[in-house]
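Lab notebook, design round three. We kept the backbone fixed and only want residue identities now. Task for the bench partner: fill in a sequence for the structure below.
Input C-alpha coordinates:
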Protein backbone atom coordinates (compact mmCIF):
# COMPACT_ATOMS: atom_id res chain seq x y z
CA UNK A 1 0.00 0.00 0.00
CA UNK A 2 1.55 3.27 -1.09
CA UNK A 3 2.00 6.15 1.36
CA UNK A 4 -0.39 8.67 -0.20
CA UNK A 5 -1.75 11.11 2.41
CA UNK A 6 -4.97 13.01 2.84
CA UNK A 7 -6.31 14.93 5.84
CA UNK A 8 -9.19 13.79 8.04
CA UNK A 9 -10.15 14.87 11.55
CA UNK A 10 -9.63 12.42 14.38
CA UNK A 11 -13.31 12.35 15.37
CA UNK A 12 -14.24 11.55 11.76
CA UNK A 13 -12.31 8.27 11.96
CA UNK A 14 -15.19 7.00 14.12
CA UNK A 15 -18.18 8.68 12.46
CA UNK A 16 -18.89 9.26 9.61
CA UNK A 17 -15.63 8.03 8.01
CA UNK A 18 -14.90 5.07 10.27
CA UNK A 19 -14.08 1.55 9.10
CA UNK A 20 -16.20 0.82 6.02
CA UNK A 21 -17.29 4.43 5.51
CA UNK A 22 -16.87 6.27 2.20
CA UNK A 23 -15.26 9.70 2.12
CA UNK A 24 -15.16 12.14 -0.79
CA UNK A 25 -12.16 14.47 -0.98
CA UNK A 26 -11.91 16.98 -3.82
CA UNK A 27 -13.51 14.72 -6.40
CA UNK A 28 -11.79 11.56 -5.14
CA UNK A 29 -13.61 8.74 -3.33
CA UNK A 30 -12.07 6.48 -0.68
CA UNK A 31 -13.25 3.85 1.80
CA UNK A 32 -11.76 3.38 5.28
CA UNK A 33 -9.89 0.09 5.69
CA UNK A 34 -10.28 -2.12 8.75
CA UNK A 35 -8.14 -1.72 11.87
CA UNK A 36 -5.43 -4.07 10.59
CA UNK A 37 -4.08 -1.05 8.72
CA UNK A 38 -3.76 0.97 11.93
CA UNK A 39 -0.28 1.35 13.32
CA UNK A 40 0.60 -0.36 16.59
CA UNK A 41 1.65 3.04 17.88
CA UNK A 42 -1.91 4.35 17.84
CA UNK A 43 -2.75 6.17 21.06
CA UNK A 44 -4.53 4.15 23.74
CA UNK A 45 -7.85 5.40 25.10
CA UNK A 46 -8.83 4.29 28.59
CA UNK A 47 -12.46 3.45 29.34
CA UNK A 48 -12.79 0.33 31.55
CA UNK A 49 -16.59 0.48 31.80
CA UNK A 50 -17.06 0.66 28.04
CA UNK A 51 -14.40 -2.01 27.44
CA UNK A 52 -16.16 -4.39 29.81
CA UNK A 53 -19.45 -3.76 28.05
CA UNK A 54 -18.03 -4.44 24.58
CA UNK A 55 -15.74 -7.24 25.82
CA UNK A 56 -12.53 -5.85 24.39
CA UNK A 57 -9.14 -5.19 25.93
CA UNK A 58 -8.90 -1.49 25.21
CA UNK A 59 -9.44 1.26 22.65
CA UNK A 60 -7.10 3.12 20.35
CA UNK A 61 -7.32 6.50 18.73
CA UNK A 62 -5.82 7.79 15.51
CA UNK A 63 -2.80 10.02 16.19
CA UNK A 64 -2.96 13.76 15.68
CA UNK A 65 -0.36 15.16 13.30
CA UNK A 66 0.52 18.83 13.91
CA UNK A 67 -0.45 21.24 11.18
CA UNK A 68 2.21 21.45 8.49
CA UNK A 69 4.04 18.33 9.74
CA UNK A 70 2.16 15.67 7.79
CA UNK A 71 4.92 15.26 5.21
CA UNK A 72 7.51 14.58 7.93
CA UNK A 73 5.54 12.31 10.27
CA UNK A 74 5.62 8.54 9.94
CA UNK A 75 2.35 7.00 8.76
CA UNK A 76 0.50 5.80 11.82
CA UNK A 77 -3.08 6.75 11.07
CA UNK A 78 -5.86 4.68 9.52
CA UNK A 79 -5.65 3.75 5.84
CA UNK A 80 -8.19 4.61 3.18
CA UNK A 81 -8.48 2.70 -0.09
CA UNK A 82 -9.58 4.26 -3.37
CA UNK A 83 -13.10 3.11 -4.10
CA UNK A 84 -14.80 2.64 -6.47
CA UNK A 85 -12.05 1.39 -8.76
CA UNK A 86 -14.06 2.23 -11.88
CA UNK A 87 -13.33 5.85 -12.86
CA UNK A 88 -14.23 7.86 -15.96
CA UNK A 89 -12.88 10.93 -17.71
CA UNK A 90 -15.31 13.87 -17.69
CA UNK A 91 -14.10 14.93 -21.18
CA UNK A 92 -13.65 11.84 -23.33
CA UNK A 93 -15.92 9.72 -21.03
CA UNK A 94 -13.56 6.75 -21.19
CA UNK A 95 -13.91 4.39 -18.20
CA UNK A 96 -10.90 2.88 -16.50
CA UNK A 97 -10.22 0.45 -13.65
CA UNK A 98 -7.71 2.07 -11.33
CA UNK A 99 -4.94 -0.01 -9.80
CA UNK A 100 -2.80 0.62 -6.72
CA UNK A 101 0.43 0.71 -8.71
CA UNK A 102 -0.89 3.73 -10.64
CA UNK A 103 -1.03 5.84 -7.48
CA UNK A 104 1.47 8.72 -7.28
CA UNK A 105 2.19 11.01 -4.36
CA UNK A 106 0.34 14.35 -4.43
CA UNK A 107 -1.31 13.44 -7.75
CA UNK A 108 -4.89 12.49 -8.44
CA UNK A 109 -5.96 9.98 -11.11
CA UNK A 110 -5.86 11.72 -14.47
CA UNK A 111 -6.79 10.88 -18.05
CA UNK A 112 -3.73 10.19 -20.21
CA UNK A 113 -5.53 10.84 -23.50
CA UNK A 114 -7.11 14.26 -23.04
CA UNK A 115 -5.15 17.55 -23.16
CA UNK A 116 -4.69 19.08 -19.74
CA UNK A 117 -4.95 15.65 -18.08
CA UNK A 118 -8.36 16.16 -16.42
CA UNK A 119 -9.00 14.41 -13.13
CA UNK A 120 -10.88 11.10 -13.36
CA UNK A 121 -14.20 10.95 -11.53
CA UNK A 122 -15.51 7.90 -9.63
CA UNK A 123 -18.62 6.09 -10.82
CA UNK A 124 -21.75 7.08 -9.01
CA UNK A 125 -23.18 3.62 -8.30
CA UNK A 126 -21.71 0.70 -6.33
CA UNK A 127 -23.06 -2.62 -5.07
CA UNK A 128 -23.57 -3.67 -1.45
CA UNK A 129 -25.29 -6.57 0.29
CA UNK A 130 -26.92 -7.26 3.65
CA UNK A 131 -23.86 -9.22 4.74
CA UNK A 132 -21.86 -5.98 4.69
CA UNK A 133 -19.84 -6.60 1.53
CA UNK A 134 -19.19 -3.82 -0.99
CA UNK A 135 -17.72 -3.90 -4.48
CA UNK A 136 -17.77 -2.24 -7.89
CA UNK A 137 -20.61 -3.06 -10.23
CA UNK A 138 -19.52 -5.22 -13.15
CA UNK A 139 -19.98 -2.48 -15.72
CA UNK A 140 -18.78 -4.67 -18.59
CA UNK A 141 -21.59 -7.13 -17.93
CA UNK A 142 -24.03 -4.29 -17.36
CA UNK A 143 -23.27 -2.80 -20.79
CA UNK A 144 -23.82 -6.16 -22.52
CA UNK A 145 -26.75 -7.42 -20.42
CA UNK A 146 -29.52 -6.26 -22.79
CA UNK A 147 -27.79 -7.11 -26.07
CA UNK A 148 -29.54 -9.58 -28.37
CA UNK A 149 -26.58 -9.95 -30.73
CA UNK A 150 -24.59 -13.12 -29.96
CA UNK A 151 -21.22 -11.46 -30.61
CA UNK A 152 -22.06 -8.63 -28.26
CA UNK A 153 -23.11 -11.01 -25.47
CA UNK A 154 -19.83 -12.90 -25.84
CA UNK A 155 -17.68 -9.75 -25.88
CA UNK A 156 -14.98 -9.81 -23.19
CA UNK A 157 -13.36 -6.45 -23.96
CA UNK A 158 -13.33 -3.88 -21.16
CA UNK A 159 -13.08 -0.74 -23.26
CA UNK A 160 -16.08 1.13 -21.89
CA UNK A 161 -17.34 4.69 -22.03
CA UNK A 162 -19.76 6.46 -19.70
CA UNK A 163 -21.75 8.81 -21.92
CA UNK A 164 -24.56 11.30 -21.32
CA UNK A 165 -27.12 11.64 -24.08
CA UNK A 166 -29.12 14.88 -24.54
CA UNK A 167 -32.21 13.07 -25.86
CA UNK A 168 -33.46 12.16 -22.39
CA UNK A 169 -33.04 13.16 -18.76
CA UNK A 170 -32.32 11.50 -15.45
CA UNK A 171 -30.68 8.09 -15.32
CA UNK A 172 -32.01 7.28 -18.78
CA UNK A 173 -29.57 9.86 -20.18
CA UNK A 174 -26.56 8.04 -18.68
CA UNK A 175 -25.32 5.03 -20.63
CA UNK A 176 -22.42 2.59 -20.36
CA UNK A 177 -21.17 1.82 -23.89
CA UNK A 178 -18.70 -0.84 -25.04
CA UNK A 179 -16.24 0.68 -27.56
CA UNK A 180 -15.49 -2.74 -29.07
CA UNK A 181 -18.94 -4.11 -29.94
CA UNK A 182 -21.09 -0.96 -29.41
CA UNK A 183 -23.32 -2.71 -26.87
CA UNK A 184 -24.81 -0.28 -24.36
CA UNK A 185 -27.33 0.08 -21.55
CA UNK A 186 -28.64 3.08 -19.67
CA UNK A 187 -28.66 3.37 -15.87
CA UNK A 188 -32.46 3.53 -15.80
CA UNK A 189 -33.76 1.12 -13.17
CA UNK A 190 -30.35 0.43 -11.63
CA UNK A 191 -31.62 1.30 -8.16
CA UNK A 192 -34.46 -1.22 -8.35
CA UNK A 193 -34.34 -4.09 -5.90
CA UNK A 194 -32.62 -7.23 -7.22
CA UNK A 195 -31.72 -5.54 -10.52
CA UNK A 196 -28.19 -6.96 -10.28
CA UNK A 197 -29.60 -10.46 -9.84
CA UNK A 198 -30.66 -10.31 -13.48
CA UNK A 199 -27.00 -10.08 -14.42
CA UNK A 200 -26.53 -13.55 -12.88
CA UNK A 201 -23.84 -12.01 -10.72
CA UNK A 202 -23.32 -13.20 -7.15
CA UNK A 203 -21.91 -11.12 -4.35
CA UNK A 204 -18.10 -11.57 -4.37
CA UNK A 205 -18.06 -11.68 -0.58
CA UNK A 206 -15.23 -9.15 -0.28
CA UNK A 207 -14.43 -5.72 1.09
CA UNK A 208 -12.49 -3.13 -0.95
CA UNK A 209 -9.54 -3.08 1.50
CA UNK A 210 -8.91 -6.81 1.71
CA UNK A 211 -5.40 -8.13 1.09
CA UNK A 212 -4.61 -10.67 -1.60
CA UNK A 213 -4.11 -13.34 1.06
CA UNK A 214 -7.59 -12.79 2.51
CA UNK A 215 -10.20 -15.34 1.54
CA UNK A 216 -13.55 -14.15 0.25
CA UNK A 217 -16.64 -15.00 2.27
CA UNK A 218 -19.13 -17.46 0.84
CA UNK A 219 -21.94 -14.91 0.52
CA UNK A 220 -25.38 -15.95 -0.68
CA UNK A 221 -26.92 -12.49 -0.39
CA UNK A 222 -28.14 -10.75 -3.52
CA UNK A 223 -26.12 -7.58 -4.15
CA UNK A 224 -28.03 -4.32 -4.45
CA UNK A 225 -27.02 -1.23 -6.44
CA UNK A 226 -26.92 1.98 -4.40
CA UNK A 227 -25.48 5.43 -4.93
CA UNK A 228 -21.99 5.87 -3.55
CA UNK A 229 -23.09 8.55 -1.10
CA UNK A 230 -26.46 7.03 -0.21
CA UNK A 231 -27.40 6.82 3.46
CA UNK A 232 -28.02 3.06 3.24
CA UNK A 233 -24.48 2.35 2.05
CA UNK A 234 -23.10 2.62 5.57
CA UNK A 235 -24.64 2.22 9.02
CA UNK A 236 -21.97 2.60 11.74
CA UNK A 237 -22.57 0.96 15.11
CA UNK A 238 -21.08 3.14 17.83
CA UNK A 239 -21.10 3.08 21.63
CA UNK A 240 -20.21 5.80 24.10
CA UNK A 241 -19.61 6.14 27.82
CA UNK A 242 -18.97 9.06 30.12
CA UNK A 243 -15.89 8.66 32.29
CA UNK A 244 -17.23 8.24 35.83
CA UNK A 245 -14.71 8.11 38.71
CA UNK A 246 -15.10 5.82 41.72
CA UNK A 247 -17.57 6.99 44.38
CA UNK A 248 -16.16 9.19 47.11
CA UNK A 249 -15.56 7.76 50.56
CA UNK A 250 -14.82 4.21 49.51
CA UNK A 251 -12.74 2.18 51.97
CA UNK A 252 -9.13 1.64 50.98
CA UNK A 253 -9.80 -2.01 50.10
CA UNK A 254 -12.66 -0.99 47.79
CA UNK A 255 -10.44 1.48 45.99
CA UNK A 256 -7.78 -1.20 45.49
CA UNK A 257 -10.38 -3.65 44.21
CA UNK A 258 -11.59 -1.04 41.74
CA UNK A 259 -7.98 -0.51 40.58
CA UNK A 260 -7.55 -4.25 40.04
CA UNK A 261 -10.84 -4.57 38.15
CA UNK A 262 -9.92 -1.65 35.90
CA UNK A 263 -6.61 -3.26 34.90
CA UNK A 264 -6.45 -4.02 31.18
CA UNK A 265 -5.55 -7.69 31.83
CA UNK A 266 -8.54 -8.26 34.12
CA UNK A 267 -10.88 -9.41 31.27
CA UNK A 268 -8.27 -11.97 30.15
CA UNK A 269 -7.93 -13.32 33.68
CA UNK A 270 -11.66 -13.47 34.48
CA UNK A 271 -12.53 -15.08 31.12
CA UNK A 272 -10.44 -18.15 32.07
CA UNK A 273 -9.62 -18.04 35.81
CA UNK A 274 -8.59 -21.72 35.74
CA UNK A 275 -6.70 -21.52 32.45
CA UNK A 276 -3.00 -22.16 31.95
CA UNK A 277 -2.19 -18.43 31.84
CA UNK A 278 -4.33 -17.41 34.81
CA UNK A 279 -1.37 -17.53 37.19
CA UNK A 280 0.72 -15.26 35.01
CA UNK A 281 -2.16 -12.82 34.59
CA UNK A 282 -2.59 -12.64 38.37
CA UNK A 283 1.11 -11.94 38.88
CA UNK A 284 1.20 -9.17 36.27
CA UNK A 285 -1.97 -7.55 37.64
CA UNK A 286 -0.56 -7.71 41.16
CA UNK A 287 2.68 -6.01 40.10
CA UNK A 288 0.95 -3.31 38.06
CA UNK A 289 -1.56 -2.52 40.83
CA UNK A 290 0.99 -2.85 43.66
CA UNK A 291 -1.00 -5.53 45.50
CA UNK A 292 -0.43 -9.17 46.36
CA UNK A 293 -1.48 -12.12 44.24
CA UNK A 294 -3.78 -13.19 47.08
CA UNK A 295 -5.51 -9.79 46.90
CA UNK A 296 -6.13 -10.30 43.17
CA UNK A 297 -7.69 -13.69 43.93
CA UNK A 298 -9.88 -12.21 46.65
CA UNK A 299 -10.97 -9.42 44.30
CA UNK A 300 -12.00 -12.02 41.75
CA UNK A 301 -13.99 -14.00 44.34
CA UNK A 302 -15.64 -10.78 45.48
CA UNK A 303 -16.75 -9.86 41.99
CA UNK A 304 -18.07 -13.39 41.41
CA UNK A 305 -20.07 -13.26 44.63
CA UNK A 306 -21.52 -9.87 43.72
CA UNK A 307 -22.44 -11.08 40.23
CA UNK A 308 -24.25 -14.14 41.58
CA UNK A 309 -26.09 -12.16 44.25
CA UNK A 310 -27.43 -9.60 41.79
CA UNK A 311 -29.83 -10.24 38.91
CA UNK A 312 -28.36 -10.08 35.43
CA UNK A 313 -28.67 -6.72 33.75
CA UNK A 314 -28.23 -5.37 30.30
CA UNK A 315 -24.76 -3.88 29.65
CA UNK A 316 -26.38 -0.62 28.57
CA UNK A 317 -28.29 -0.67 31.84
CA UNK A 318 -25.06 -0.88 33.79
CA UNK A 319 -23.61 2.17 32.07
CA UNK A 320 -26.71 4.27 32.59
CA UNK A 321 -26.99 3.30 36.26
CA UNK A 322 -23.48 4.48 37.10
CA UNK A 323 -23.90 7.70 35.13
CA UNK A 324 -27.30 8.42 36.68
CA UNK A 325 -25.93 7.87 40.18
CA UNK A 326 -22.97 10.18 39.58
CA UNK A 327 -24.99 12.98 37.98
CA UNK A 328 -28.01 12.91 40.28
CA UNK A 329 -25.80 12.90 43.39
CA UNK A 330 -22.61 14.77 42.41
CA UNK A 331 -21.33 14.95 46.00
CA UNK A 332 -20.99 11.14 46.02
CA UNK A 333 -18.32 11.19 43.32
CA UNK A 334 -14.65 11.60 44.17
CA UNK A 335 -12.73 14.48 42.66
CA UNK A 336 -11.42 13.83 39.16
CA UNK A 337 -9.67 15.79 36.46
CA UNK A 338 -12.03 14.35 33.85
CA UNK A 339 -15.32 14.60 35.76
CA UNK A 340 -16.01 17.85 37.59
CA UNK A 341 -19.66 18.40 38.52
CA UNK A 342 -21.48 20.59 41.04
CA UNK A 343 -25.04 21.36 42.00
CA UNK A 344 -26.75 24.50 40.74
CA UNK A 345 -29.98 26.26 41.61
CA UNK A 346 -32.83 27.47 39.46
CA UNK A 347 -32.94 30.62 41.60
CA UNK A 348 -36.74 30.72 41.80
CA UNK A 349 -38.43 32.00 44.97
CA UNK A 350 -41.99 32.86 46.00
CA UNK A 351 -41.76 36.29 44.33
CA UNK A 352 -41.11 34.80 40.88
CA UNK A 353 -43.83 34.67 38.21
CA UNK A 354 -46.26 31.74 38.41
CA UNK A 355 -44.72 30.03 35.36
CA UNK A 356 -41.36 30.00 37.09
CA UNK A 357 -42.86 28.61 40.30
CA UNK A 358 -44.65 25.90 38.31
CA UNK A 359 -41.37 25.04 36.64
CA UNK A 360 -39.59 24.79 39.99
CA UNK A 361 -42.07 22.16 41.17
CA UNK A 362 -41.23 19.99 38.17
CA UNK A 363 -37.42 20.19 38.42
CA UNK A 364 -35.78 18.41 41.35
CA UNK A 365 -32.05 18.60 40.56
CA UNK A 366 -29.79 20.76 38.42
CA UNK A 367 -26.12 19.88 38.02
CA UNK A 368 -23.57 21.68 35.87
CA UNK A 369 -20.58 19.74 34.62
CA UNK A 370 -17.55 21.97 34.27
CA UNK A 371 -15.61 19.12 32.68
CA UNK A 372 -16.67 15.72 31.37
CA UNK A 373 -14.87 13.13 29.27
CA UNK A 374 -16.71 10.94 26.79
CA UNK A 375 -15.26 7.95 24.95
CA UNK A 376 -16.92 7.03 21.66
CA UNK A 377 -16.03 3.67 20.10
CA UNK A 378 -16.86 2.08 16.75
CA UNK A 379 -17.86 -1.58 17.03
CA UNK A 380 -18.62 -2.21 13.37
CA UNK A 381 -21.05 -1.40 10.60
CA UNK A 382 -23.77 -2.80 8.37
CA UNK A 383 -24.88 -2.04 4.83
CA UNK A 384 -28.15 -1.67 2.93
CA UNK A 385 -30.15 -2.16 6.15
CA UNK A 386 -29.29 -1.33 9.77
CA UNK A 387 -28.40 -4.24 11.97
CA UNK A 388 -31.48 -5.12 14.07
CA UNK A 389 -29.59 -6.66 16.97
CA UNK A 390 -29.26 -10.28 17.98
CA UNK A 391 -32.37 -11.44 16.15
CA UNK A 392 -34.49 -10.43 13.22
CA UNK A 393 -33.91 -9.58 9.61
CA UNK A 394 -31.60 -6.79 8.60
CA UNK A 395 -28.01 -6.00 7.82
CA UNK A 396 -25.30 -8.14 9.39
CA UNK A 397 -22.89 -6.45 11.77
CA UNK A 398 -19.38 -6.41 10.26
CA UNK A 399 -16.57 -6.10 12.79
CA UNK A 400 -13.90 -3.41 12.49
CA UNK A 401 -11.48 -6.30 12.00
CA UNK A 402 -12.76 -8.40 9.10
CA UNK A 403 -10.09 -11.09 9.49
CA UNK A 404 -10.42 -12.09 13.15
CA UNK A 405 -12.06 -11.13 16.42
CA UNK A 406 -11.22 -7.54 17.33
CA UNK A 407 -9.31 -7.31 20.62
CA UNK A 408 -9.48 -3.52 20.54
CA UNK A 409 -11.75 -0.98 18.92
CA UNK A 410 -11.10 2.44 17.36
CA UNK A 411 -12.29 5.19 19.64
CA UNK A 412 -12.00 8.89 20.31
CA UNK A 413 -12.17 10.80 23.57
CA UNK A 414 -13.75 14.23 23.80
CA UNK A 415 -13.76 16.72 26.64
CA UNK A 416 -16.47 19.23 27.26
CA UNK A 417 -19.09 20.60 29.61
CA UNK A 418 -22.75 19.94 30.21
CA UNK A 419 -26.03 20.51 32.04
CA UNK A 420 -27.93 17.77 33.86
CA UNK A 421 -31.60 18.18 34.79
CA UNK A 422 -33.63 15.71 36.83
CA UNK A 423 -37.41 16.04 37.14
CA UNK A 424 -39.40 15.41 40.30
CA UNK A 425 -40.08 11.68 40.61
CA UNK A 426 -43.35 12.00 42.56
CA UNK A 427 -44.94 14.40 40.08
CA UNK A 428 -43.64 12.39 37.16
CA UNK A 429 -45.06 9.13 38.55
CA UNK A 430 -48.45 10.78 39.14
CA UNK A 431 -48.47 12.01 35.54
CA UNK A 432 -47.40 8.63 34.13
CA UNK A 433 -50.28 6.70 35.70
CA UNK A 434 -52.89 8.81 33.90
CA UNK A 435 -54.79 6.52 31.57
CA UNK A 436 -54.66 8.92 28.61
CA UNK A 437 -50.88 9.22 28.94
CA UNK A 438 -50.41 5.44 29.17
CA UNK A 439 -52.68 4.75 26.17
CA UNK A 440 -50.84 7.36 24.11
CA UNK A 441 -47.48 5.76 24.90
CA UNK A 442 -48.79 2.25 24.14
CA UNK A 443 -49.54 3.33 20.56
CA UNK A 444 -45.93 4.39 20.12
CA UNK A 445 -44.76 1.15 21.72
CA UNK A 446 -46.78 -0.94 19.24
CA UNK A 447 -44.95 0.75 16.38
CA UNK A 448 -41.69 0.21 18.25
CA UNK A 449 -42.32 -3.53 18.55
CA UNK A 450 -42.97 -3.73 14.81
CA UNK A 451 -39.83 -1.77 13.94
CA UNK A 452 -36.60 -3.34 12.67
CA UNK A 453 -34.80 -1.18 15.24
CA UNK A 454 -36.66 -2.62 18.21
CA UNK A 455 -33.64 -4.38 19.77
CA UNK A 456 -31.42 -1.32 19.56
CA UNK A 457 -34.08 1.04 20.89
CA UNK A 458 -35.08 -1.34 23.69
CA UNK A 459 -31.47 -1.31 24.86
CA UNK A 460 -31.95 2.41 25.55
CA UNK A 461 -35.56 2.53 26.74
CA UNK A 462 -35.58 -0.70 28.75
CA UNK A 463 -38.02 -3.63 28.53
CA UNK A 464 -41.04 -1.28 28.68
CA UNK A 465 -41.36 2.06 26.93
CA UNK A 466 -42.33 4.49 29.68
CA UNK A 467 -44.06 7.82 29.01
CA UNK A 468 -41.16 9.53 30.78
CA UNK A 469 -38.73 8.28 28.13
CA UNK A 470 -40.69 9.84 25.26
CA UNK A 471 -41.25 13.07 27.19
CA UNK A 472 -37.67 13.47 28.41
CA UNK A 473 -36.21 12.56 25.02
CA UNK A 474 -38.35 15.27 23.44
CA UNK A 475 -37.30 17.69 26.19
CA UNK A 476 -33.63 16.96 25.46
CA UNK A 477 -34.12 17.76 21.77
CA UNK A 478 -35.82 21.08 22.45
CA UNK A 479 -33.24 21.84 25.13
CA UNK A 480 -30.45 21.42 22.57
CA UNK A 481 -32.26 23.55 20.01
CA UNK A 482 -32.78 26.34 22.53
CA UNK A 483 -29.21 26.13 23.85
CA UNK A 484 -27.89 26.54 20.33
CA UNK A 485 -29.45 30.02 20.40
CA UNK A 486 -28.65 30.93 24.01
CA UNK A 487 -25.18 29.44 24.62
CA UNK A 488 -23.41 30.10 21.33
CA UNK A 489 -22.81 26.44 20.56
CA UNK A 490 -23.71 24.94 17.22
CA UNK A 491 -26.51 22.38 17.66
CA UNK A 492 -24.37 19.71 15.98
CA UNK A 493 -21.70 20.12 18.68
CA UNK A 494 -24.14 19.15 21.46
CA UNK A 495 -25.22 15.64 22.45
CA UNK A 496 -27.89 14.14 24.66
CA UNK A 497 -28.11 11.34 27.18
CA UNK A 498 -31.59 10.41 28.35
CA UNK A 499 -31.94 8.69 31.72
CA UNK A 500 -35.48 7.31 31.76
CA UNK A 501 -35.14 3.59 31.09
CA UNK A 502 -37.38 1.02 32.68
CA UNK A 503 -35.91 -1.82 34.73
CA UNK A 504 -36.82 -5.48 35.03
CA UNK A 505 -39.08 -6.30 38.01
CA UNK A 506 -37.06 -7.00 41.13
CA UNK A 507 -33.87 -5.48 39.78
CA UNK A 508 -33.59 -3.07 42.68
CA UNK A 509 -32.31 -0.28 40.46
CA UNK A 510 -33.55 3.22 41.31
CA UNK A 511 -35.90 4.94 38.83
CA UNK A 512 -34.34 7.38 36.39
CA UNK A 513 -35.82 10.66 35.24
CA UNK A 514 -33.40 13.15 33.75
CA UNK A 515 -31.49 14.42 30.75
CA UNK A 516 -27.87 15.38 30.29
CA UNK A 517 -26.91 17.73 27.46
CA UNK A 518 -23.20 18.11 26.90
CA UNK A 519 -20.70 19.20 24.28
CA UNK A 520 -19.50 16.56 21.86
CA UNK A 521 -17.02 18.54 19.76
CA UNK A 522 -13.48 17.17 19.68
CA UNK A 523 -11.85 20.59 19.40
CA UNK A 524 -11.81 23.86 21.32
CA UNK A 525 -15.56 24.31 20.82
CA UNK A 526 -16.14 21.65 23.45
CA UNK A 527 -14.99 23.85 26.34
CA UNK A 528 -16.09 27.40 25.62
CA UNK A 529 -17.93 27.71 28.95
CA UNK A 530 -21.25 28.84 27.50
CA UNK A 531 -23.09 25.69 28.53
CA UNK A 532 -22.11 25.97 32.21
CA UNK A 533 -23.23 29.59 32.25
CA UNK A 534 -26.64 28.67 30.84
CA UNK A 535 -27.03 26.00 33.50
CA UNK A 536 -26.97 28.51 36.33
CA UNK A 537 -29.45 31.02 37.70
CA UNK A 538 -31.22 32.91 36.22
CA UNK A 539 -30.40 31.71 32.71
CA UNK A 540 -31.53 28.07 32.97
CA UNK A 541 -35.10 28.82 34.05
CA UNK A 542 -35.49 31.33 31.23
CA UNK A 543 -34.10 28.82 28.73
CA UNK A 544 -36.55 26.12 29.87
CA UNK A 545 -39.53 28.49 29.63
CA UNK A 546 -38.51 29.60 26.14
CA UNK A 547 -38.09 26.02 24.90
CA UNK A 548 -41.58 25.14 26.13
CA UNK A 549 -43.02 28.17 24.34
CA UNK A 550 -41.22 27.26 21.12
CA UNK A 551 -42.34 23.61 21.40
CA UNK A 552 -46.01 24.59 21.20
CA UNK A 553 -45.66 25.87 17.65
CA UNK A 554 -44.40 24.26 14.45
CA UNK A 555 -44.49 25.66 10.92
CA UNK A 556 -45.94 22.33 9.76
CA UNK A 557 -48.88 22.39 12.19
CA UNK A 558 -51.54 21.08 12.17
CA UNK A 559 -50.00 18.22 10.16
CA UNK A 560 -47.18 17.81 12.66
CA UNK A 561 -49.27 18.20 15.83
CA UNK A 562 -51.99 15.81 14.63
CA UNK A 563 -49.64 13.17 13.27
CA UNK A 564 -50.31 9.54 14.19
CA UNK A 565 -46.96 8.33 12.90
CA UNK A 566 -43.97 10.05 11.32
CA UNK A 567 -40.41 9.27 10.24
CA UNK A 568 -38.96 5.80 9.75
CA UNK A 569 -41.22 3.01 11.09
CA UNK A 570 -43.69 5.62 12.43
CA UNK A 571 -41.71 5.96 15.65
CA UNK A 572 -42.41 9.70 16.03
CA UNK A 573 -45.64 11.54 16.57
CA UNK A 574 -45.69 15.35 16.85
CA UNK A 575 -42.06 15.83 15.86
CA UNK A 576 -40.51 16.93 12.58
CA UNK A 577 -37.47 18.74 11.22
CA UNK A 578 -39.16 22.10 11.65
CA UNK A 579 -39.68 21.74 15.40
CA UNK A 580 -37.90 18.81 17.12
CA UNK A 581 -35.46 16.74 15.06
CA UNK A 582 -31.72 17.35 15.41
CA UNK A 583 -28.56 16.52 13.46
CA UNK A 584 -27.84 12.80 13.66
CA UNK A 585 -24.72 13.38 15.76
CA UNK A 586 -26.83 14.85 18.58
CA UNK A 587 -29.32 12.05 19.17
CA UNK A 588 -28.40 8.68 20.67
CA UNK A 589 -31.34 6.81 19.07
CA UNK A 590 -31.52 8.18 15.53
CA UNK A 591 -34.19 10.87 16.03
CA UNK A 592 -36.75 8.25 17.08
CA UNK A 593 -39.43 8.08 19.82
CA UNK A 594 -40.22 11.79 19.93
CA UNK A 595 -43.53 13.52 20.64
CA UNK A 596 -44.20 17.14 21.62
CA UNK A 597 -47.65 16.15 22.87
CA UNK A 598 -46.32 14.43 25.98
CA UNK A 599 -44.17 17.47 26.70
CA UNK A 600 -46.69 20.32 26.35
CA UNK A 601 -50.02 18.46 26.01
CA UNK A 602 -53.10 18.94 23.85
CA UNK A 603 -56.86 18.50 24.17
CA UNK A 604 -56.53 14.70 24.42
CA UNK A 605 -53.37 14.15 26.45
CA UNK A 606 -52.01 16.32 29.30
CA UNK A 607 -48.34 17.17 28.89
CA UNK A 608 -45.98 17.01 31.84
CA UNK A 609 -45.12 20.72 31.49
CA UNK A 610 -48.60 21.78 30.35
CA UNK A 611 -49.38 23.89 33.42
CA UNK A 612 -45.99 25.61 33.21
CA UNK A 613 -46.56 26.50 29.57
CA UNK A 614 -50.13 27.69 30.25
CA UNK A 615 -48.93 30.01 32.99
CA UNK A 616 -46.19 31.40 30.74
CA UNK A 617 -48.70 32.13 27.96
CA UNK A 618 -51.07 33.87 30.36
CA UNK A 619 -48.22 36.05 31.58
CA UNK A 620 -47.31 36.92 28.00
CA UNK A 621 -50.88 37.97 27.31
CA UNK A 622 -50.96 40.15 30.42
CA UNK A 623 -47.64 41.71 29.44
CA UNK A 624 -48.88 42.90 26.05
CA UNK A 625 -52.14 44.11 27.63
CA UNK A 626 -54.50 41.80 25.76
CA UNK A 627 -56.16 40.23 28.75
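Proposed sequence:
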Amino acid sequence: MKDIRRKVRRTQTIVPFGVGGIIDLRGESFVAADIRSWSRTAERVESPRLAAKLRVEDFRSAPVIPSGKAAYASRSGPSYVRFPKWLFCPQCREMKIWRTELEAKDRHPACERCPGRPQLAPMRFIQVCRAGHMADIDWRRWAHSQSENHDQRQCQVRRLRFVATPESSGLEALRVVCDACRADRSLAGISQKNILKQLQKQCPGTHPWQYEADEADACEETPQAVQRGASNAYFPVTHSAIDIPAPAGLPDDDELVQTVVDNKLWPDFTSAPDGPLAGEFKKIIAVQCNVSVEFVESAWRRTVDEATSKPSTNPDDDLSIAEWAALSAPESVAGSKTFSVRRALLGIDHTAPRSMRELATKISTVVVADRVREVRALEGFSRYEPTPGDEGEGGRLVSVNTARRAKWLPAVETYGEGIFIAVDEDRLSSWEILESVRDWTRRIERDLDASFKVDRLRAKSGPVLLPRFVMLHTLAHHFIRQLSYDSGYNAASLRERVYARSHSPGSGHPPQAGVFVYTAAGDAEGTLGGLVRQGQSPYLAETLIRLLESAQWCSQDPLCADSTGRSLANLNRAACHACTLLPETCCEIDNSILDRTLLIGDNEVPGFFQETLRAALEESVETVGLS
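Keep this in mind before ordering anything: The chain is about 25% helix and 20% strand.
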